[in-house]
């Protein structure tokens, strides 16, 4: 009896930390869902939670990860040997090492290798669609003006049902405008406007600041902002801001 009591206590403790999930009963009203259903709902709703996402954790590369990253860079000009190395070595990496290698290649703006490992990660048995995984990929592609790769990654995240929050949308739009890709930035901005999440003022301000070099596009976003937040003010930069900056740049080059 004592053993049975301890077993029941452990089971009740296991599910006590999960969020309460309710199901509708025909007998009338809501009642708590079974523990298994609560656990499944918790996992599904937390796929892109910052506290659970492996792409948000501190990425410390182990010795094997360092060797693999170095070898990938050495072999990238030899497609046959590179593919052979990826098939024979990448699959043997621990999940944490693979995540760290991807992050390091993104930091070094190795777009070709990032896309290679992007395909590898999405085939791993542990892979789950993750907002932060796609955010980091898009940020890398924006910095390197990789338009074709951006379209492919965007199609993939849409097919997997990944949804960005408003702050992430703002950061991505800003990254593309800062990267000199205003058309792509506005396409993502349109996706942001169609998002089911309620709009927030801060992401709009981030986008407006990044669109200062593109006055016409900025006016469009500004109009949307004032329509959504009529009580707020947008400060416009001086009209001669870029003229002065261009003169200063030419003067520095001359001397």
UniProtKB/TrEMBL annotation:
PPR repeat windows: 165-199
Pfam families named in the record: PPR
Cytoplasm listed as a keyword: no
Record key words, sorted: Repeat
Cited PANTHER family: OS03G0297700 PROTEIN, PROTEIN THYLAKOID ASSEMBLY 8-LIKE, CHLOROPLASTIC
Protein name, as recorded: Pentatricopeptide repeat-containing protein
UniProt source species: Trapa incisa
